[in-house]
């Protein structure tokens, strides 16, 4: 792949003249799996955070329909629309220089099957500039994944605890325990055979995720699926502790508790105490 050579300032970021950014692509993710290099993914929903996550080295920015919960405040992902996904994905794409950007197809879009999903995916890629779409479901979505992949649209599969099935599951419940394990294996195999470039394994037992990871040639990206997956993804608001409505057991928090509340609290204090703005933040005549 041809490296993109950057000048010493790109979009305001200081960059050493010799630094070359090689964008993450589908073949690169496959190379990483073969080389045993872990893939790092975080969800992103806007330009500024996409930029920070990209700069921190995240390989795959996933514009998840989790935005229905962490951005919009719904209790599930179901209300999110295709227009909203395109809007957020376009913003994330503008913030990503190296990371690959993938957009979730929201609830309802995939029920129309083949051509309807293709139309939605084409809109997503054309209007946002991202590099792929993610859709939930295994065996039942295999034909659709095959159709998109045949037409060169990179598809990220998603099996296990698929949040769009929350009502059918009776809540956000771990899937694939005991006798249910084979169903998840079949789903993952079907997604891979249909041509998905990778698959998210969500909310399944770690040994099951390990077994699937060993069987598949495409990378597995785990969330609540143990450490043996080829990569890991977390919802950004969960890992930074910015969303407190539901905190799944698999989430690790990477910002000290109350960091944001404390920062805003200082601002409140300084405004009330006449400390902010100081002379250095004010304009002279
Ligand atoms: O919507 C989302 O953010 C997701 C990831 C957590 C996998 O589907």
Structure, explained:
This protein has an 8-stranded parallel β-barrel with strand order 5-6-7-8-9-10-11-12, surrounded by 7 helices. The protein has a two-stranded antiparallel sheet with strand order 1-4. Strands 2-3 form a two-stranded antiparallel ribbon. With 285 residues, the protein is an alpha/beta fold. Helices cover 37% and strands 15% of the residues. 41% of the residues are buried. Helix 4 (82-95) runs parallel beside helix 5, helix 5 (114-128) crosses helix 6 and helix 8 runs parallel beside helix 9 (206-215). It starts with a strand and ends in a 13-residue tail after the last helix. Residues 4-8 have low confidence and may be disordered. It has helices at residues 26-35, 47-55, 67-70, 82-95, 114-128, 142-150, 166-169, 181-193, 206-215, 236-239, 259-272; strands spanning 4-5, 9-10, 13-14, 20-21, 39-43, 60-63, 100-104, 132-134, 155-160, 198-202, 220-223, 231-234. Strand 2 (9-10) and strand 3 (13-14) form a beta hairpin. It has a single domain (9-256), classed as Phosphoenolpyruvate-binding domains (TIM Barrel, Alpha-Beta Barrel). The chain is built from 11 helices and 12 strands.
């Amino acid at each position: 792949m041809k490296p993109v050579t950057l000048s010493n300032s790109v979009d305001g970021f200081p960059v050493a003249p010799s630094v070359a950014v090689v964008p993450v692509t589908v073949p690169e993710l496959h190379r990483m799996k073969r080389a045993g290099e872990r893939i790092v993914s975080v969800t992103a929903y806007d330009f500024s955070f996409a930029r920070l996550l990209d700069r921190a080295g995240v390989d795959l920015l996933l514009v998840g329909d989790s935005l229905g919960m962490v951005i919009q405040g719904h209790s599930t992902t179901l209300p999110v629309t295709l227009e909203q996904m395109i809007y957020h994905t376009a913003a994330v794409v503008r913030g990503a220089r190296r990371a690959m950007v993938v957009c979730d197809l929201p609830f309802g879009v995939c029920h129309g099957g083949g051509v309807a999903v293709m139309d939605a995916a084409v809109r997503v890629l054309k209007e946002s500039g991202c590099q792929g779409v993610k859709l939930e479901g295994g065996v039942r979505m295999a034909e659709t994944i095959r159709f998109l992949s045949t037409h060169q649209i990179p598809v990220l599969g998603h099996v296990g605890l698929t949040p769009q099935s929350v009502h059918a599951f009776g809540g956000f419940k771990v899937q694939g325990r005991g006798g249910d394990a084979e169903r998840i294996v079949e789903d993952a195999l079907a997604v891979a055979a249909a041509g998905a470039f990778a698959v998210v394994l969500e909310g399944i037992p770690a040994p099951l995720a390990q077994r699937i990871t060993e069987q598949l040639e495409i990378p597995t990206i785990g969330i609540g699926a143990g450490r043996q997956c080829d990569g890991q993804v977390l919802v950004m608001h969960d890992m930074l502790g910015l969303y407190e409505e539901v905190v799944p057991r698999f989430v690790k928090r990477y910002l000290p508790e109350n960091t944001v509340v404390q920062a805003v609290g200082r601002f409140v204090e300084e405004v009330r105490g006449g400390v902010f703005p100081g002379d250095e933040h004010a304009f002279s005549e």
